[in-house]
Structures are given as structure tokens and as C-alpha cells.
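Appendix B. Chain record.
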Amino acid sequence: MKISVIIPTYNRCESLERTLHAIRTQTLPAEHFELVIVSDGSNDGTDEMVANWAPHQQIVYLRQNNSGPSVARNLGISCAHGELLVFLDDDIEPCPTFLQSHFEAHILDDRLVIIGPQSPPPNERFPVWIDWEHRMLERQYANFRSGVWSVGPNNLYSGNFSVRRQYMLDCGGFDPKFKRQEDVELGFRLEKLGLRFAFCPEAIGYHRPVRSFDSWLKSPYLYGIRDVQMARDKGENTSMDLARKHYNQRNALTKLLARSCIGVPLAEKGLFQFLKYNILFWDRMGLRNVSLGVCSILFNLLYLQGMAQEIGGSKKMWNELSVSRKNNTGNIVQ
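C-alpha cells predicted for this chain:
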């Protein structure tokens, strides 16, 4: 069984080169895999860097106009030669057993979607908002390992997962309309094909995201929008079931602040500015744990703000979040 490792990239030449160095050290013999690198309009020297690597590794290098990672991944799928696809982001450094672990998991069961951890590199320090992301994911991985949480389509992260190519073709690949949550939306469609999801702790990818504070602030807002769209436009009610579950498990302070400000523009603006200031202030004061706590509050409020906008107002959102429905999966991410 041959593997195609699909890596979309956009102006991350240095980071991509680190990824290629790590792939060169894989325990899986090189004849078992190819690299399919899709440049999404890069103009930072990526072309020349990859050309220098091509004589030493099996590389299929593709270029497209800047169209987003979903389109890039779909192009990679269409040109891949492998029976098994491993999706890897250009800011992730795979550990030496990365490909071997994905490979062996699919030998045991070909109807699995394997999700590997995107973990922080040891002994490296990140901005507080990136540190918060890493800690939330590491908490999730710990619960997967212990069996406290089951793995579902809502846990699919496109930076480190694998699936048989035929299933990606059967479901139509990534939806280009989704610029965020495109992996989760894909996960729900793969589940409808009868595939199951499993966590492989050995398939570690060390994640070095480069994301500004402003960019981080946009993410939860867009997640809220996408969850409503998945339910409304795709008929995927699980996304709203999970939103209810997560909201009901938030702490009392977050719920109080949400009820007080969401849907009230001046209150939203004032509170969000206050929380943003506090995230940076407490981190500068050396109280990172306090700053991380404020990150959690602001992340949840921004998510609800996005949901309220897309659903047609805060009143409709609160009504939707109060509806009781049976859900069949769902693990706390925020």
C-alpha cells in the first residue's frame, strides 16, 4: 500500500523546509510514499526550495492561483498516486514514526479515519493565544488516550490525519466554500460513508503555528458561523447539538457575560476590548495562567457572537441553544 502525503502550502518556505527535513527521517522506507506538495500561489521562494529537494525525494509539485487550502488539498487528491492519503500541514514537523504509525493503523482497518496529535514541540515557548490552543488540544488528546472521550468527526483536524483515497473521492473531497471548519464538515460526510474515527498517539506532528493575535481572534467567530451553516445548509444537526452541549458545560461567569453582551453591539465591543487587553496584560505580568483563563472566556464569547450573527440574532441563538436534542458524539474543545 503506497502513501501520498498531501501538503498544501502558502508562503511558508522556511516552515515547509523543516517539514521536508523531518519527512526525510521517517522510519517508513521512502519507496512506500510520495509527497504531493500544492503551492497555493506562493511567491516566497517555495518553488526553488522544493526544486532542490525533488532529486532526493519522490515529490509531485503542483501550483495553483491562491484559492485556499481546501482547493489545494483537492488538487493534491486528484493527482495523488497512493491508495492511502496522509494530510499534513506545512507548519507541522512529523516525528520519525509519523508515517509508519498512519500506515500500520490502516493495515489493521481500512475503514478508519486516523487522527494524529498536533502537539507543541518540547521546550519551545509560544505566544499566549497559541499556548492556549496547544493546551486545549493536549487536554483533548489525554482524554482520547484514557477513553474518557470518544473520537468523532468533530475532532478531525486537517493538519494531521489519514484516510483511504477512494473514500475522499466518494465523498467529493473538501468543500471549497468552507474556509474554516472545512475539516470538520468533511468529517461528517466521511462518517456518513460508514467510516469510523480513531486517535493514533504515535503519529505525532510538532505544530508551530504562526498566527497573530488578531488572526486568532477571528477563528472562534468563524467557527460559530460555520456551525450554523453546517446545520442550516448541510442538514448536519450534530454541529448544533455539540454547540448546545459545549455551552451548557461552560462556567457560570462565561454564561453570565454571554447573556449580558451577545447581541448588544456596544456591550460586545466594550467587553471584548477589555478581555483582549487583559489577555496581553496578565501575560506581560508573568501570570500566564490568568491570561489563559481569559483566553477561554473570550474564545467562547466570540464563538457565540459569530453564531448569533449567522443564525439571525441573539434571541434566535438562545432559543436554539435551549432546545433539547439527543446527541451522539461531542467532546469539549474550548
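Further analysis of this model is presented in Appendix C.
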